[in-house]
Structures are given as structure tokens and as C-alpha cells.
Amino acid sequence: xxxxxxxxxxxxxxxxxxxxxxxxxxxxxxxxxxxxxxxxxxxxxxxxxxxxxxxxxxxxxxxxxxxxxxxxxxxxxxxxxxxxxxxxxxxxxxxxxxxxxxxxxxxxxxxxxxxxxxxxxxxxxxxxxxxxxxxxxxxxxxxxxxxxxxxxxxxxxxxxxxxxxxxxx
Length: 169
Description:
By secondary structure, the protein is α/β, with parallel strands linked by helices. The chain contains eight helices and five strands; from the N terminus they run αβααβααβααβαβ.
């Protein structure tokens, strides 16, 4: 079954989650001495090990490119964790949407990669964009304007949250 068939099938079965690069980065990182980061790492591992099978997970080539950068050993761990996760394409529509989000001053130009993650998840009608990026993505000050911007452009925005938001009841 190819990725497009898998996307269509899972659309009716499971909530579809676009994994932004910070998720796999927290999974693959050595334990942090910073208490907050260490807690985020642990929560991410808990979600990955106990909850991820409840969702259809997706990435883009952009996630793979980001995950493959930096320290060679850490990059290998990140890329290995993403093996088998279906990729959605980075379409012209997604690139255009990312530009529109930046142009409307919802996400700043220096965070164009974050705008692209949002656009890819939105264009492919993901239910959720999972991230630890709380500066430009999972940020209460940005979520409302971002959702309004996406709706004004004719799109239904995904829910943007951290793994804490997907731990279940």
C-alpha cells in the first residue's frame, strides 16, 4: 500500500497527526539536565510508546531533512525513529499557503519553516499538528490568529498541540 492509499484509509479510521520535527528531536535526544526539557522528553517518550498507535502519523520530506541535520549520531537516531512513517508531499499549494501565513504576519519570516509545517499539515487535512515548538506553533497567542488566517484562505486548520494534549482522558 502506498502512502496516498494509507492516508485515504486512515482518514476514516484514526485521527491523522503530522509530526513536526521537535517531536522526534525530543525522542532521540540524550536526557536533558534542564528539568522542563527533561519532562517534555519523558512525556514525548510516554506518548510515543503508549499512545501513538491510536493515531495515523505523517511527516513531510521537510521533517526528514530537519531530522537528518546536525550531530550525525543524533540525526541517525531521529531518522531511524521516522522510518516507516508515511510522507505527505510538499505541494505548491502548501508552499503558497506558508507564504500567505507569513505575509499576513501570523508567523514571522524568520520562522518560515514553521509556516511550512503548518501549511503542509493544513493542505493535507491533518487533524493534528504535534509539536514542542511553543514559540511559533503551539502558542495560545498565535493559535487564534493562525486559525482565522487559514479559514480566511479557505482551509480548516489542524489542532496544534504538544504531546501533553494527546495523552487521553
